[in-house]
Each structure stands twice: as structure tokens, then as C-alpha cells.
Amino acid sequence: MMTMTTNREATPIIKAMVSRLTSLASVLRGILAPLPWGGAGGGLALLCGLLCSCGEYFEFGANDPVGAGQMQLARKVIPLVVGDHYAIPVLFTPDSLSNNAVYWSTEDTTIAGFENDTLVAYAEGQTLAYAYSAIDLLRDTAVVVVLPEMYVAPDSYPYDMVIYASVAIDGEPLTLDNHDPYIIGAYVGNELRGVGQMRRLEGTDYMVLRVWSPFSYGDEVRLRCYFRGQARALLFPDVFIFDGERHGTLSSLYPLRLDTATAEEYLPAVGGGIIDVPEPIIVENGEE
After folding, report:
1. Which terminal CB of the chain, N or C, has fewer other CB atoms within 10 Å?
2. Based on the number of CB atoms within 10 Å of its own CB, is 29 exposed (0-12), middle (13-18) or buried (19 or more)?
3. What is the pLDDT of residue 200?
């Protein structure tokens, strides 16, 4: 597991400990002051001795939990598009620890940060996300890969091919009304070459995916579906060889099907990019 020790990691835990001990000391001062063992000062000295004798030291930078409890982030690698967000699930063992308050931070807050306990991607790059359990002093980390919002500049490529497709994810057809959570991109290796756009013609919803290439033939094209708010990208099983032709027509759409339970998960490389989908276009007459 990747770990990096910084002063920022310790800050949430130290604040929580200081706040808790300050509150406890304030309460006990009122209780101990009347007792005949040196007043409040003596009572607080006794309190400090008790705290030191029953506690354990916590070493920041170590992933081993203190005590019997354990905490683990459900995702260790988190891909996000700039502007997207994700609430990282936290798993506690035993379940009775699930009410623990969790403090969050990131190594580089210019790349990603937390807003109301939700991870938000700000800029392209890679950083670490830290989670701390205030009660049991547990800790875990995850790698955050932030991808840029991009588009493919057609002027950069002399050749193109077009896919006219009907798309279904887990058996549910993608339409002009429900496609917002998904971005479907065409890739050659890690290079984005096209993006799907949902359209509607005479009551039929379909996707147009124009794929660009510097070569007239031969590139292997794979399609990936990025799930907004879920921090994951899955591969369609289909493989296309770039040929400059049309695949599917409005009268015979190419069937693209994705089963999220069996699909291969893909982690886009930093700089690979997932593009932002333009507004849907409603075509009035014929094919593009």
C-alpha cells in the first residue's frame, strides 16, 4: 500500500484528540476540585497518569490499526474526470465501529480535495487520499487519478469512421433522456479518438460515435464507458479495426451491450483523458 507521511496527515487526528481531552479535562476539573488530594491540579495530575497508563502511542505514517478495530477504503485506485465527484465507501471491522467519524484529506489539494466528505476532482494529475478514524486512530489511503475534460480536434486527423449504435447497459437501453451518467469514448491505446453522442430520429434513440485516426486503416479501437459519480470505467467487449467505413445504419443499428457484472474494468492512465460529452443533438432529417 502506498503511504506518504506529511504534517497534514496528523492534523485531523491531533485536533480531534485535543478537543476530546480538553472537554474531558473541563468536566473532571469540576468533579475533582472539591476532593482532598491536592485540588483540581492534583486531580488533573492523576487524570494524566491514568491516561498515560491505559493508552497506546500512535505513530503517524503506519497503516497498522491501534486496538482490535480495522478500517479499509473500498477502493484503492479511484479514476475521476475533472469536475466529477465520488463518496469513497469505508469498511469497518467489526461493524460496531461503523459510527466512527472519518476525517479526510488529500496529498495535493490542487488536484483533488474533499467537500462535505465527498472527493472532488479539480485538475489533471495523481494524488493520494487519506482517511482517518478519529475514535480508534485507524488510517487508510487510496490513489486518485484525475483525468482531464477533453475533446477530439477533428483537424488533427485526416481520417474518420462512424459507428451508429443502439446502446444498452445491464439490459437498459441508453436514450436521450437517461444517458447523462455515462460517457462512452473510443480509444486507440490510451489516446482518446472519439466520443459518443446520443441522438433521436423519429422516436428512435441511438448513439453516433465518430472515431478519428491519422491512418486510413489498421488502428485497434476499444470503447470504454465512464460512470459519472462512480469513479470507474468499463470496457465494452467489442473491438473495431479502423477502416474509414460506416458501422451500422439508422435502419440497422450496431448493438453495443455492456454487462457491468462481467465487464473488464479499465483505469485510464493520467493524461489519457475522458472527454466531456456535448449537448445531445436531435436530428430532424436522415443520417449525418
Report:
1. N
2. middle
3. 97
- Say if residues 154 and 161 touch (Cβ distance below 8 Å): no
What is the distance between the alpha carbons of residues 272 and 191, in angstroms, rounded to a whole number? Answer: 6
The three three-digit cell numbers of residue 181, written as one number: 451518467
In whole angstroms, what is the distance from residue 215 CA to residue 149 CA?
25
pTM above 0.85, yes or no: no
Query: 225, 217, 220: which is closest to 243 by C-alpha?
Result: 217
The DSSP call for residue 265 is B
| 3-state SS, residue 20 | helix
φ, ψ for residue 250, nearest 5 deg: -65, -30
Mean pLDDT of the chain: 78
Q: Among positive and negative, which fits the CA dihedral 186, 267, 176, 153? A: negative
Instruction: Please give the grid coordinates belonging to residue 136.
Output: 480508534
pLDDT band at 95 (very low <50, low <70, confident <90, very high): confident
